[in-house]
Design a protein that fits this description.
The protein has one domain. The protein is built from 13 helices and no strands. The N terminus and C terminus are likely disordered. Helix 6 runs antiparallel to helix 13.
Length: 304
């Protein structure tokens, strides 16, 4: 079994993807002020898929690519985009931006457990378990800063549960990417799956929300264009990393523990009425320990 690839470049790319995703929570809350959730998500991901077309390279290979990887594209479109973001966007209408960032911070745990049972070369090790423990503790303390036991907090419980379903779908999607053909171009794969998932979301929006209304607010389009860029860039980076020899789902997803930290901070800075307290600060410290715990152990291992 190959050793996990933990080069500085891999770490920096993982951090970049996670940071981009963490900025999405705030901009989604901005966009949802003007748009229904499913249509907003649908057009965002369809545009993200189109934004990647100039980076395909040789366009003549596209028919052969679709024929060879069609099943993977469809399944990823369903799990990695359609199910994930249908639940995510709907859940975000029921919670604050900070709560959304914190709740989805549990995704590394779901990814680690799912990979442990579904991938032979990605078992939970003691360092990973310790890292997940501190990460979960940090997420719990961060959540206390949103006053979950207040009347507003209990009102957010359905949204939190819906967001957890989106995290599970993300974990399944990560495993599908890890199991897919390593030779598949990650940019083309992401472009096609994200457009496919966006198209399914559009169909859902027509049934649930009706014909989308025309929005004229500049703030909405600022959020919409930025979120489309985030989807195109972050998922392409993530797919590239998941296809690198030796990079496992559980190790890569541990970096997602930085998302509730940066996502909550951005929400506190930008969104009115959201501010931190002592518990989030302590929680962020535990999350930092979580990331350090797994990487200090990795650095001590001899190179293969």
């Amino acid at each position: 079994m190959k050793s996990e690839n933990r080069s500085i470049k891999t770490v920096l790319l993982a951090l970049l993807a996670c940071f981009l995703w963490s900025t999405a929570f705030t901009f989604i809350k901005i966009g949802l002020k003007y748009s229904q959730p499913f249509s907003f998500a649908a057009f965002r991901f369809m545009l993200a898929g189109i934004l990647l077309v100039p980076f395909y390279g040789k366009y003549r290979i596209l028919p052969a690519f679709i024929k060879r990887h069609g099943k993977t594209i469809l399944l990823l479109g369903i799990f990695q985009t359609f199910i994930l973001y249908a639940f995510f966007y709907f859940g975000m209408t029921l919670v604050s931006g900070a709560t959304g960032a914190i709740t989805t911070g549990i995704s590394p745990v779901m990814a680690g457990i799912t990979a442990h049972f579904l991938l032979k070369n990605d078992k939970l090790t003691f360092p990973k378990i310790i890292s997940l423990f501190f990460g979960v503790a940090g997420v719990v303390l961060l959540s206390l800063g949103t006053e979950p036991f207040s009347s507003r907090g209990w009102g957010e419980l359905p949204g939190i549960l819906i967001l957890l379903i989106s995290c599970l779908s993300s974990a399944i999607g990560n495993i599908m990417v890890a199991r897919s053909d390593k030779t598949a171009n990650p940019v083309i794969l992401n472009s096609l799956q994200i457009f496919t998932g966006g198209f399914f979301l559009l169909i859902l929006s027509l049934f649930v929300e009706g014909i989308p209304v025309v929005i004229t607010e500049p703030e909405f389009y600022m959020a919409f264009i930025y979120l489309s860029f985030v989807s195109a860039a972050a998922f392409s980076i993530w797919f590239h990393l998941l296809k690198k020899p030796g990079v496992t789902v559980s190790y890569l997803n541990i970096w997602k523990f930085i998302m509730p930290v940066s996502g909550a901070i951005l929400s506190w800075l930008i969104l009115p009425g959201e501010k931190p307290s002592l518990y989030p600060v302590i929680g962020m410290g535990l999350i930092a320990i979580s990331v350090i715990a797994v990487n200090v152990t990795n650095l001590k291992r001899p190179k293969p």
